[in-house]
Input
Amino acid sequence: MDEKHKEVYKTHIEGKESASEAVLRAVTTASNQPILDLPPLANSIDPDSLDQLFASSPAPDLLQFRYEAYLITVEPGHVRIQTD
Output
């Protein structure tokens, strides 16, 4: 983990859940905001591309992007949420 960022939440990608669904679930938990109050994930990353990337084999080791005030790290099977 980058020393500049504080981890606020980490979760597993559940069963048939897509990477983008896991990201949104993690952000709603970390931020205590309902999903409908969050801006579209597409403002930060293409959700379909994210899902396809982590559904492929082999999946990348990790992908990081900013969404709202968070640094999102997606790894095979996990999503990590960090703040500055």
Remarks:
- The first strand starts at residue 6 and ends at 12.
- The chain has two helices and four strands.
- Residues 19-31 form the longest helix (13 residues).
